[in-house]
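Appendix C. Worked example: MFS transporter
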Amino acid sequence: MMPSLFLAHGSPMLAIEQTEYTAFLEQLGKSIRPKAIVIFTAHWETQALTISSIDDVYDTIYDFGGFPPELYAVKYPAHGSVELAAKLKELYEQKGIDVQTDRVRGLDHGSWTLLHRMYPEADIPVVQISVNPFLSPKAQYAIGEVLRGLGEQDILVIGSGVTVHNLRIVKWGETKTEPWALDFDDWIIENVQSGDVEALDRYESEAPYARQAVPRAEHFVPLLIAMGSGDSANKAKVIHRSYEMGNLSYLCFQF
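Step 2, the predicted output written as structure tokens:
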């Protein structure tokens, strides 16, 4: 039985750095061994839900700039799964959700940086799915709900994003976390663990410092999708919480 996860992908440097967080990801990968992975990434935005559908090895997309050369040398040669992609497409069509498939896009850093640390052998099939940040929080949760039960088939669902993600106000080299970032994540933890979807639907107006923490929703919505895909009978768990650059959150949940 696989859980659903929300994992923070933060800086692309997590692919090559050794930190408290990368050590956590490595240990997590050792403790959870799925037969396939479905990952919603904040770095693939489309209006219609789009599912990668290939059996070949993915290209590794370096959708960032200004980082050390060794980061661009990292490859994550995971295979896709046309069979699983077709199954997911059918599930969404049955719920009346607009969905399409993509046969050319590689894995962006919202996917491969995390998976590179968790499963470095790249020997587990991966299906990558896009997000639409303009849908309501309730709609994001409903997208996740469609996939409930995949864990019983040993398929791991991951939402890859960040709760507090405002690159305009990060403080390079700062090791002390700013109180406002903690306050926002505290509110998120309280409402995620209580399963209060109604409150989360109103996070923009009710969560403290929401505009500061989430200037744009693309990194936040994978949390709601992962939450929706989890078993609502079990309380969500915080499985990691750390910060860097003053306010960049590495808060992670298991559902």
